[in-house]
Write a structure and sequence with these properties.
By secondary structure, the chain is α/β, with parallel strands linked by helices. 31% of the residues lie in helices and 16% in strands. It has four helices and six strands; from the N terminus they run βαβαβββαβα. A four-stranded parallel beta sheet has the order 1-2-3-6. It starts with 14 loop residues before the first strand and ends with a helix.
């Protein structure tokens, strides 16, 4: 699994998305990342940041705003449609969420947050971008 990846020369700054390995305990995950020379983790939960720091792993992209609906009951997908910035009705909640996460990022010396644009659900690209 993870042990097949290596950056022993240290030439690359690599990160791994936490959600892909959600079943791996954070302590073990960070230790494996460190041992492979991987220096970053994307979308780690705030509660996991102290463990990341202990192993020299930077939470290089944190969750900023938006969410996913549950997948359909008969779906094999992990996530359902995303809720995000393309719909004006979500803006009030998203602005508050992104401000909270931006403040948290700044307080922890983190520089990157990500937010969801949102699934179209019949909306044109132009309308979503305009919104």
């Amino acid at each position: 699994m993870l042990s097949q990846i290596s950056n022993s020369a240290g030439r690359l700054k690599q990160s791994v998305a936490r959600w892909c390995f959600a079943d791996v305990p954070i302590e073990s995950f960070c230790q494996q990342l460190r041992d492979m020379g991987i220096t970053g983790i994307d979308l780690a939960d705030e509660k996991e940041w102290p463990v990341c720091k202990r192993y020299g792993i930077t939470p290089c992209m944190i969750f900023g705003g938006g969410s996913f609906k549950p997948p359909a009951p008969d779906s094999s997908l992990m996530f359902g449609p995303s809720i995000g910035w393309n719909k004006i009705s979500h803006h009030g909640e998203l602005i508050a969420e992104v401000q909270k996460q931006a403040d948290l990022a700044v307080a922890n010396g983190l520089t990157n947050i990500i937010a969801l644009f949102g699934d179209r659900e019949g909306m044109s690209d132009e309308e979503g971008i305009e919104n």
